[in-house]
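Q: What residues go here?
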């Protein structure tokens, strides 16, 4: 008997239970276990029906991703699915938690599926750069119709049990999975229900077979936003086979498409990102078993752009929030923006119509810092000025309850200095959310010199509870993300002085896969912020300053590096800006030259990587993967390129170091000299991912 799959018999019903924590993934032992138990049950004359269920927190969450890229151990998943489908006795999948990927494919091989109310079912392979490789692209369309199937497979989002029942993906909603599955199997036997083998049931395909545009329209809708990705298109192609290719031949072609994707660069990068994200949640350098503090009530100070968005994220997760402002006017404005945002989401169908009111009901708006007194976690999101932050934290120290975690959302300021005005620096840290905070998933957790381990672990746990992706970073100007972004911005600006135009630079960035280029991003953030900061520091930037002096602050004024017409956010190249750039260069006596796209790409990406190398060496980030996660979730780095450090490893560090040295000399810019870590790894022919990679330590983070 298998260690991870067991077989029990209850009055003629065989219960096959997969018990392979944490998520019952379909590793070789599980596949073998299910197959053997199913064969034993089929051969046993006392068994009349077979129920497949799982122990632990979830039904099978998919193929075992750690096995990908290694030689396949028998039995193949398709064989397991076929055994359940071909069984002469009824097979019932009893689902709780999530039935995902290969897990749902196994369930689709069963003749019937039942699920508990809060179960979710989906084929999310596309998020790993793959498509369902064990019949999912053929059986799901036969279960729910090709339009919904292509939406689920190309979009990768699971559906809940209620929707699954409505669409015919499951046959019933039950109370307990195994007991419900058993009762359902008894009913199937009593009613002598015919076995439904999806492979033989084309009824849901008929409409789209007769009118192919039903399917092609659905494909067009779901692939609209898949720019640069291979898997969504391959997945749509595979689902399309269900309409015109015999089942077994379609399975063969599905397998070929799956293997092609699995061995391709995009899926490798996406699988890397999956594990990097989970690794990032493991905090380096805290004692094993450190427990998070309890967080039931949160206070947020400042109801501006960030405070409001952060409050929405907590309300989305059902956590009550006290939102604190300086005065009634700003409070009213902040709450109004939040309500409008929730209502816009409801109007788009993103949440139910009664959700805006329910979520706003979790937010209590008040004036005065004394209201932090009941909060387990306080997040400060006031103006980005050290004096203001210090005043707020000194006051917090008076009112916050002992043991409360005190976090600042500062983008650049020194957490240690902020902590120093309190009598409890061990409870202080940064929680740096990204704008718009209710949408962006990244949260940089900034560890101060005195931050206690359980405070760090609490912030990581809270971030995950509100569906953010936490990455722990050390203290420095701009932390990981904004510090690397500054290195990129410096080069983007310099390129304008050397001969490039904003549209050319941005086009290179978006072709690479970034959601927007550096100049469109500046326009979105507002050019006046940098202008004010340069004036305070006595720094000049001829082109950016001239834009601001002309009242061009970016999207908010309808003009910046681009122009924006009729309230649209689409950047339009503006001849006035191009003249302004050329004039500024002439004033400075600079000769402009033609700059090729390849140079632009290298000058945007390699300095970003170079700064990442410094960050790693200084211990501001513990692992290269942490830096990649920051860029994937904070800046929209294309997931199929894994993140800047992963990308650099694929390009080759020697090449990158050589090119940086070349640009340092050619553009007379010492900041482009390769960082010592990059130089060393390049000379040794190693990568950032090589074990320890010559870094000082991965166990301690700089603070
Ligand atoms: N294979 C191997 N390990 C997996 C895994 C999988 N499919 N899914 C999750 N894990 C691991 C995680 O790496 C993590 O390990 P760790 O504790 O060592 O870091 C652990 O299980 C728990 O995962 P999470 O931290 O993500 O736990 P959550 O409770 O937050 O989420 C989940 C659970 C929703 C199942 C989530 O893990 C998930 O989305 N998993 C991936 C599901 C997926 O993509 N399935 C398709 C796989 S491809 C496939 O099936 C191909 C087939 O068509 C042939
Ligand atoms: P904002 O100006 O939109 O909001 C700040 C709010 O704080 C205002 O509503 C103000 O009335 C309130 N406030 C000021 N002092 C207060 C006090 N003593 N008590 C209560 N409320 C007070 O600013 P924004 O953009 O929300 O930024 C807030 C913080 O978040 C800053 O530290 C900023 O650097 C950081 N941040 C900003 C991002 C952005 O893109 N806007 C991104 C990430 C972080």
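A:
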């Amino acid at each position: 008997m298998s260690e991870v799959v067991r077989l029990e018999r209850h009055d003629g019903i065989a219960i096959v239970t997969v018990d392979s924590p944490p998520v019952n993934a379909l590793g070789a032992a599980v596949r073998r276990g299910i197959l053997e138990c199913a064969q034993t049950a089929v051969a046993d004359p006392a068994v009349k029906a077979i129920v497949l269920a799982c122990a632990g927190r979830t039904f099978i969450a998919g193929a075992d991703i750690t096995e990908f890229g290694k030689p396949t151990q028998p039995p193949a998943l398709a064989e397991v699915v076929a055994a359940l489908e071909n069984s002469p006795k009824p097979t019932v999948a009893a689902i709780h938690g999530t039935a995902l990927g290969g897990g749902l494919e196994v369930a689709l091989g069963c003749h019937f599926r039942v699920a508990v109310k809060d179960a979710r079912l989906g084929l999310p392979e596309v998020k790993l750069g793959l498509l369902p490789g064990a019949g999912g692209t053929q059986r799901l369309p036969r279960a729910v119709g090709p339009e919904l199937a292509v939406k689920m497979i190309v979009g990768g989002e699971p559906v809940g049990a209620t929707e699954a029942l409505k669409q015919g993906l499951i046959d019933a909603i039950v109370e307990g999975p195994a007991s419900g599955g058993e009762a359902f199997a008894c009913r199937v036997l009593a009613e002598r229900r015919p076995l439904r083998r999806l492979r033989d049931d084309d009824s849901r395909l008929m409409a789209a077979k007769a009118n192919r545009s039903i399917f092609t329209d659905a494909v067009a809708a779901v692939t609209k936003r898949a720019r640069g990705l291979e898997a969504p298109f391959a997945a749509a192609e595979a689902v399309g086979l269900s309409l015109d290719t015999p089942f077994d031949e379609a399975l063969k072609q599905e397998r070929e498409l799956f293997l092609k994707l699995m061995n391709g660069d995009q899926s490798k990068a996406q699988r890397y990102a999956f594990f990097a994200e989970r690794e990032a949640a493991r905090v380096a350098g805290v004692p094993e078993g450190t427990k998070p503090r309890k967080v039931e009530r949160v206070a947020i100070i400042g109801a501006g752009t960030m405070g409001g968005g952060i409050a929405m994220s907590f309300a989305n997760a059902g956590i009550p929030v006290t939102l604190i402002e300086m005065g009634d006017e700003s409070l009213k404005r902040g709450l109004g923006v939040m309500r409008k945002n929730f209502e816009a989401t409801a109007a788009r169908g993103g949440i139910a119509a009664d959700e805006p009111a329910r979520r706003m009901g979790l937010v209590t708006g008040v004036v005065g810092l004394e209201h932090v007194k009941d909060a387990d976690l306080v997040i400060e999101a006031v103006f980005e000025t050290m004096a203001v932050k210090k005043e707020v934290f000194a006051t917090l120290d008076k009112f916050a309850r002992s043991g409360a975690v005190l976090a600042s959302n500062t983008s650049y300021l020194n957490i240690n200095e902020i902590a120093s005005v309190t009598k409890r620096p061990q409870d202080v840290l940064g929680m740096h959310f990204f704008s718009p905070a209710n949408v962006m998933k990244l949260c940089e957790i900034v560890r101060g010199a005195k931050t206690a381990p359980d405070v760090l672990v609490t912030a990581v746990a809270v971030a995950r509870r509100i569906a953010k992706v936490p990455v722990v970073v050390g203290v420095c100007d701009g932390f990981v993300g904004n510090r690397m972004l500054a290195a990129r911005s410096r080069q983007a600006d310099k390129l304008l002085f050397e001969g490039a135009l904003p549209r050319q630079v941005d086009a290179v960035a978006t072709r690479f896969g970034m959601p927007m280029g550096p100049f469109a991003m500046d326009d979105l953030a507002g050019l006046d912020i940098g202008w004010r900061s340069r004036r305070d520091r006595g720094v000049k930037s001829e082109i950016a300053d001239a834009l601001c002096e002309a009242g061009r602050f970016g999207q908010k004024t309808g003009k910046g590096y681009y122009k924006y017409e009729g309230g649209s956010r689409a950047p339009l190249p503006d001849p006035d800006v191009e003249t302004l750039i050329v004039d500024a260069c002439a004033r400075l006596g600079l000769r402009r030259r033609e700059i090729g796209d390849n140079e632009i790409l290298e000058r945007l990406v390699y300095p970003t990587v170079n700064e990442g190398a410094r960050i790693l060496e200084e211990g501001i980030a513990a692992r290269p993967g942490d830096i990649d996660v920051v860029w994937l979730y904070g800046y929209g780095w294309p997931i199929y390129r894994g993140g800047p450090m992963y990308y650099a490893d694929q390009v080759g560090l020697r090449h990158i170091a050589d090119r940086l040295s070349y640009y340092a000399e050619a553009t007379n810019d010492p900041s482009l000299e390769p960082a010592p870590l990059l130089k060393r790894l390049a000379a040794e022919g190693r990568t950032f991912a090589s074990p320890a990679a010559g870094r000082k330590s991965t166990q301690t983070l700089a603070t």
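A: Context that may help when evaluating the design: Confidence is low (pLDDT under 50) at residues 696-700. Residues 597-617 form the longest helix (21 residues).
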